[in-house]
Structure formats: structure tokens, C-alpha cells
Amino acid sequence: MDRADKATIDRLIPLAYDVLRRSGIAHQTDPNQPGLAIKSGWRRQVSAFGSAITMGSLWAPIAFFAKTSSGSDLPRDELCKAIAMMLAEGRTDRQGKTLVQMIDTDREPVTRAEIINATVALKLAMNLYRLEDDARQP
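Now predict its structure.
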């Protein structure tokens, strides 16, 4: 089974911090508060995604998270986009591709370990932002 690699995750945290900002997951909410914030729901989403990838199949959680639910207050497809941004960093063959496209390829597909490492790095990088209650609107 693929597992998280501590050294790789440590190296990915600064990238994850930047991807959270660039993707809009981290955003300015209150002009009176310094810095950007992340809704607490994102932490739950990334935890659920990471658990599903680690414990089950690769395709089922990606299929679930790749589509935004009309009943969700957070666009969970943004999580897949953020992971794809991380996996594309420094790889011209992955630029502009979705997470599904990166997995469904004959030429160097993304591995489960790469997805787990990116997911853990995103979860840890979220701790570097101010946490915001889900009820607040951006």
C-alpha cells in the first residue's frame, strides 16, 4: 500500500501553502483581520478525501470530489483542482490537466503516493492560515 512520505510532505508544504492562496481556498474575509483565512469545512473536506484515498480505491473519491455538489457550501471540486496544481508544479507534461487526466494516462500516471503526499501537505498547510467558521461568507 502506498503511504505518506514525511520528507516529501515537508518539501511540499510551502507549495501547498501557495496553492491554497492561488486556488482561492485561502481568501481575505475580514479587512480588520490580517492575512488570509480558510473555512473550517475545507479541513473536513481534505481529511475525508485523504482518508478515502488511503483506505479505498483511487477512482471513487476522485469521482466524488471532482464534481461540486449542489447541497455543499464548499465547491469540493476545488480540492481536486488544488491537488492537480500541486502535482503539475515543475512538470510540463501535467500542466493544465485535471486530476482525472493525470491519473488516466498511459504515460507516467500520477501515483496514489503522490496524491496522498499532496493531500497531507495541503492539510498541514491549512494550519498556517487563520481558520474561519463555515457560517461566515467570504
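The CA atoms of residues 45 and 76 lie 7 Å apart.
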